[in-house]
Here is the input.
Amino acid sequence: MLLTLASAGAYGQVNLIARLHPGANPALIAYQYGIQYKEKAPAAPFYLFFVRAGLDPEAIQLQMATNPNVAWVEDDLKLESPEGVSGGKGGTVGAINDRNNGYALNAGVFNQIGFYKPFTLQWGRPVRIALLDTGLAPNLTSLWSRAVARYNAVEPGTLPLDVARRTDSNLNGKYDEGVGHGTFVAGLIDQISPKSLLVIARVADSDGVSSAWRLIKGLSYSVAVGAEVANISLGSPGNVPALSDVIEWAQLNGTLVIAAAGNENRDMVYDPAGISKVLAVTGVDGADRKAVFSNFHGKIESCAPATGLRSYGIGPNMVIWSGTSFAAPLVSGAVIECLRHLPAKMSVEVLFDRVEASGMNIDALNPGYQGHLGRRLWLPDLWLKIKG
Ligand SMILES: [Ca+2]
Ligand SMILES: [Ca+2]
Here is the structure.
């Protein structure tokens, strides 16, 4: 897969992201450096600035970093959903989009992770999980009825609909290759945690293309509306420095971020999954061996099935799709389902450690990858660890 790490080069602009200290005036700061203040993330101290052509963004960045009102300033970088680029969708399954069809078709996967449906039927708190992805298909009315908060960082002011837009924003000759990604992720959450409330944040377009700024806006919104878990099945193979402080801020404000490690079968982790405070998830097959496409690395905390998963499509029928992106929502869904059964919210720092400590050690089945896959999701143990 090919990813551009130039400063948001795909948009023909140079964007800078900054965290400003309380009381700072972004318009005044922009004026001082001859740049333009564009917008602020929802209810968060992060700001986007636009450096017009002809100015040297690196020089401006260095000057801004010395401003006492600026905590940090970094480039806006591009991120993508890995399946859109390197994968490609599998076939449609001859079953309509329905949770019970999901249980039947994913029986092997759910057995593998120790999921049992009666757990999801018990009483619980109204927990919120944020899905930062391509949005949700308009026809999934039962999921929309649980979508208590909706945000669109791609087409601001409109519903976060996961529909084809006839675009090729990453100029790879394929149109809308990311469409359905967010819907598929939402469908997995619907199966594993059918009563949790959804925060649908569209941060990637229908080609699966996102950016650090879109992600920051989506995550800030998710924190503001009280999401306890945020699932990010997107990434960049390079470092995205703007995200690390944002993730820390999200954690301090009550949101655990869980992200996919990437699909390149390499000893590396995509950002944001590579950021230490993000719970990084990679993929295994039905026999608990590393999925052929999934990345591996010592920074990975958890793994879950990533091959041949069934979930909802943007049409009437379920689809089958493989990818590390889809292992992450199994972990996210399992975590939010366990949190639903707790009487109150818990510290994200404590939660992170408990999730990381849970699950099965599958190193013996994975020679050559010891300590590089994290522990494999096992719901009964996750519940024991989370309830403490
Ligand atoms: Ca494309
Ligand atoms: Ca981590």
About this structure: Residues 168, 170, 172, 174, 177, 207 surround calcium ion (ligand 1) (CB under 6 Å). Residues 80-387 form a domain with the Rossmann fold fold (CATH 3.40.50.200).
